[in-house]
Amino acid sequence: MASLLEIELAKLKEAIAKIGTLAEHQVIEAMKKLLSDPNVEVKEIKKTEHKIDKLDVKIDEICQNVFALQQPVASDLRFIMSAMQISSETERIGDLSISIVKKTKNVKEKHDLIALFQIDQITQIVEAITAKTNECFLIQDEKMIAEIFLMNKEITTICEATIEKIITEMKHNSSVITSGTNLILILKHLERIGNHCTNIAESIYFMINAKLIKHEKIK
Fold it and tell me: What dihedral angle (degrees, nearest 10) is formed by the CA atoms of 160, 124, 26, 22?
C-alpha cells in the first residue's frame, strides 16, 4: 500500500506533466496564430491559460502540504524543489504564448513579413524544444537535457540574426516599422520560451544528479 508521501509525490508528478502539456498546447496554438491559421480560437487559448494558472497554484499547494506534513528524503526533496521551479517556468511559457497571440494583431502584411524573414522555421524549433522539454521531464533523460541546451542556443542565434534583418528592413522601408517592431517583440518572446525550457532542463538535471548547472554549459 502506497504511503501518503508516495501518493502526494505521484499527484505532483501528474500535475507537472499536465501543466507541461497545456503549455505545449499554448505554444502550438500561438505559433499557428502567428502564421495566420484562421482556425485558431483565441477564447480556447484564454481558457487554457486559466487552467495553467490553476494548476500552478495546485502544484504549490501540493508542495507545501508535503513540506508541512511529511519528511521527504533527499531525492524526494530535490523532486519537490524542482517541481516548484518547473511549474513557475512552465506558467511563464503559457504567459508568453498569450503575449505572442496579442502581438500578432499588430503585425500587418503578416504573410509577406513571415515569408521574408522565414519566421516559420523559428516556430518549428520553438514547438520542438517545448515538446522535448516535457518528454525530458517524464523520462528524465540526460541526453535530452543537452539537446535542449543546443536547441535553445539555435533559437537565440536565429532570433538575433532575424531581428537584425528586420531592423535593416525597417531602415529602408518605413511602412513596416510598426509591424516590424511588433515582430521583434514576438521574436524576443520566442527566445524567452527557449530560455524557460532551458531553465526547466536545469531543474531536471538537479533532480537527477543533485547538482546545479545554472549558467554552466553541457559539453
Answer: -120
Question: How far is it, in rounded angstroms, from Cα 16 to Cα 145?
Answer: 17
Tens of pLDDT along the chain (219 residues)? 568 888 899 999 999 999 999 999 999 999 999 988 766 788 889 899 999 999 999 999 999 988 887 777 888 889 999 999 999 999 999 999 999 999 998 887 777 888 899 999 999 999 999 999 999 999 998 899 999 999 999 999 999 999 999 999 999 999 899 999 999 999 999 999 999 999 999 999 999 998 887 655 555
| pTM of the full structure | 0.93
Q: In terms of C-beta distances under 8 Å and separation of at least 24 residues, what long-range contacts does 133-136 make, across chains too?
A: 133/20, 133/197, 133/200, 133/201, 134/17, 134/20, 134/21, 134/24, 136/200, 136/201, 136/204
Dihedral (CA of 122, 127, 131, 133) sign: positive
Taking the C-alpha atoms of residue 93 and residue 108, their distance in angstroms, rounded to an integer, is 25
Our measurement of the distance from residue 37's CA atom to the centroid of its chain's CA atoms, rounded to an integer in Å, reads 21
**Backbone angle region of 217, left / alpha / beta, with phi > 0 → left and psi within -120 to 50 → alpha:** beta
Distances (CA, A) of 72 to 38, 61, 161, 169: 49, 16, 47, 56
Question: By C-alpha distance, which of 58, 125, 86, 66 is closest to 208?
Answer: 86
